[in-house]
Amino acid sequence: MQLTMQLMSGLAVGCIYALVAIGFSMIYRALGLVNFAQGDIMMLGAFIGYSILVAMPALPFWLVLISATALTAVLGLLIERLAFRSAVNRKADQIYLVLLTLGIGIVLSNSARLIWGANPVVYPIALSHQIYTVLGYPFPAVYVYIAVTMPLLLLGLQLFFSKTWLGISSRAVSDDREVAALMGVDAGRASGVSFAIAAGTGALAGVLYAPITYVSFDMGVIGVKAFAAAIIGSLGSIPGAVVGGLIIGIGETLGSALISSEYMDSIAFLLMIGILLVRPTGLFNRAIKT
Amino acid sequence: MNEPRAQGSIPSLILSSQILSTGKLRVRRDWLIFGVVMVLGWGTPLLAGGFYLYLGLTVAIYAIAALGLQVMVGLAGQLSLGHAAFVGLGAYTTVLLEKTYAMPFLAAAGCGMLVAGLMGLLMAQLVRLSGVYFKIATFGFGIIVYQIISNTTWLTGGHVGIRGIPAISIFGTALTTRKELFILEMLALTIVYALLLRLCHGRVGRALSAIGQNESAARSVGIPTNAYRMVVITIGCAVAGLAGSFLPHLMRFLSPESFGWHESLVLLIMITVGGLGSLPGAILGALILIVVPEYMRELAEYKMLVYGVLLVLCMMFLPTGLVALPATVAGWVARLRTRKK
User: Fold this and answer.
1) How many domains does chain A have?
2) Is there a domain that residue A47 lies in?
3) Which pLDDT value is given to residue B173?
4) In a domain, A7, yes or no
5) How many CA atoms lie within 13 A of A90 on its CB side?
6) Which of A87, A99, A276 sits opposite B272 (nearest CB)?
7) CB-CB contact of B60 with B182 (8 Å)
8) Do residue A260 and residue B151 have CB atoms under 8 angstroms apart?
9) pLDDT for position A68
10) Which of A216, A258, A280, B181 makes the best surface tag, with the fewest CB within 10 Å?
């Protein structure tokens, strides 16, 4: 009983990590950039969802989900345009790009603190507390949304990258920026699209995560665990990000039940370091080019 | 996909302007800068006294920690996202040894450096991982150390922290005034700065700058690249431990909050704003990030936001940091001129 419940919550949190990790991986593939602001974009998405709910309390949750995702995607587009495009174009060094994303993360989280305050907020809807009982197990209602969103998103991404011209061209750009540009692909637009999708999935993660816990300006830190997830599954691989997210989510939940919940984050990173020692480029290393 | 270039360009960038080159002129210039920095660093707080002395005490500690991080980033080309954890290891080791075994400060600080260095060596084993992977591993390392410090309540007092830090005692005499503490800190800073400068000019520095220019070529002439990186990472972490051994004696209080992710970020911002890869840059960055907030106390709420904006602006417009400001401005002027023609 206890174990099943822990597995369940590990799976749910793992899905959240996976969503953020997909964002990491997409940006890494498109721009060769490790985006440390991804967790803060997730936080921003969660807050945007909160503001939408406060403004329109009657809006159904799935509409909140979609509108927060769309708004954050636009924001992602803006960030890419203003902050990253020039740096990526002049082929700035990886260390500078990482520091740039860290800086943007700090700016985002502290702006959020000024806008929404330093105290954590809870979504003012029934979903935050609603719990179903399935076969005698308590089952938080938001898990249903997570369980529906994950496969839909993966399917959508798969279709986007294999069927639409925009998706195929962004894959071309991430494979080889110069050659793709020679073939007439607008590399800038492709990276913009990747950034927007990454920001959107981040927001999706944030809004889905909010009913499980709360929303606060510093929740972006869990983004780094999502990063560990992306790394376990090899940076750049979307299925890898999903598998990595689930490994981290379930691993840290079970681990903290076995050892101590105070060491939850440590367990996540020990898992990552352990896996990296055995497979230095992650479990799905097909996608890594060095 | 940018990894090979990533490991290369930081040292080569330094080569172009800053510390790593080994020409006699550059060596002389670096020592000249060292002299100027030290005269200002020793002189200003001691002459001005009072609040300046307090600022000097704080800046010196962070300058030492930032110097350690700077060699890791500048020489080894490895960004560490968990540097504050090593400061914490030094701080806790020193204080616990002083309190439980009444160990004199120098011996305790030495143990603090040793513990931080050994943990650094352990972390350096991950250097075989490619750049991005190493960065996130350093982050993980920082979190693990932080959580261990926070949760081993029987040893460290956990989040409650440790009070009643004993005064530093050296050869039987206790240092009770701020001036004495400052002199000791500055001695440490001077020695660390001088030794790291020697390191940069010496064999390891040359070897790592060769890696910066062309890693495969450097390997082909038999430079053990990863071994050198591990050495530099270990040194950087031990230096952080030294900074840590001073920190509780200034604060008179020790809690894990001083060594979290946030503090690691601040250290990174220090070396970036000052100038990545430049030792005087690390000191300049520590100075700015400590002193400026002290004069903007009423704006404390915006402190981190300002830091973030500073970091972003630096990365966008001044990637070589403030130490290279004259060169950067000269570059802009030259570009403007050619554009006019």
Assistant:
1) 1
2) yes
3) 76
4) no
5) 11
6) A99
7) yes
8) yes
9) 94
10) A258
3-state secondary structure (DSSP) of residue A276: helix
Distance CA A165, CA A180 (A): 13
Nearest to A96 among B144, B307, B315 (CB): B315
Is the pLDDT confidence value at B92 over 60?
yes
Q: What CA–CA distance (Å, rounded) separates B74 from A50?
A: 42
Task: Give this complex's ipTM.
Answer: 0.81
In this prediction, residue B19 carries a pLDDT of 45
Domain that holds residue A104: 14-220
A52 or B50, greater pLDDT: A52
- Using the predicted structure, report yes or no on whether residue B223 has a pLDDT greater than 60: yes
Contact A104 B13 (CB under 8 A): no
* CA distance, residue B269 to nearest chain A CA (Å): 8
Distance from CA of B76 to the nearest CA of A (A): 12
The residue ranking higher by pLDDT, B63 or B78, is B63
- How is chain B split into domains, by residue range? 3-340
Yes or no, beta carbons of B136 and A224 under 8 Å apart: yes
Beta bridge partner(s), residue A132? A139
A221: left (phi over 0), alpha (psi -120 to 50) or beta: alpha
Give the one of B10, B265, B316 whose C-beta lies nearest to A93's C-beta: B10
* B3-340 maps to CATH 3.40.1440: no
The answer to whether residue A206 sits within a structural domain is yes
Fill in the amino acid letter for B110.
Answer: G
- Residue B43's identity, in one-letter code, is G
Contact A223, A118 (CB under 8 A): no
Q: Is there a contact between B136 and A95 if contact means CB atoms under 8 Å apart?
A: no
Q: What percent of chain A has pLDDT over 90?
A: 24
**Residues contacting residue B287 through CB under 8 Å, at least 6 positions apart:** B59, B63
pLDDT attached to residue B167? 79
User: What Å distances lie between residue A152 and A63, A145, A160, A234, CA to CA?
Assistant: 15, 11, 12, 22
Instruction: Report pLDDT for B4.
Output: 39
Residue B84 is encoded by which pair of tokens? 């504050």
Angle at A154 between CA A42 and CA A133, to 5 degrees: 75
The one-letter amino acid at B21? S
Global pTM reads 0.85
| B4 part of contact set with chain A, CB < 8 Å | yes
Confidence category of residue A219, pLDDT binned at 50, 70, 90: confident
**Interchain proximity B147–A106, CB inside 8 Å:** no
Encode pLDDT of B312-326 as tens digits: 888 888 877 888 888
Q: What is the per-residue burial (b if ≥16 Cβ within 10 Å, else e) of B264-281?
A: bbbbbbbbbbbbbbbbbb
For A124-162, the pLDDT digits (tens) are 887 777 777 777 777 788 888 888 888 899 899 888 888
The residue that leads in pLDDT, B69 or A177, is B69
What residues of chain B lie within 8 A of the CB of A107, using their CB? 305, 308-309, 312
Q: In terms of Cα–Cα distance, which of B287, B254, B231 is closest to B87? A: B254
How far CA A209 is from CA of A42, A67, A206, A223, B54, in Å, comes to 9, 16, 5, 12, 44
Rounded mean pLDDT, B78-102: 91
Can you give the pLDDT at residue B22?
52
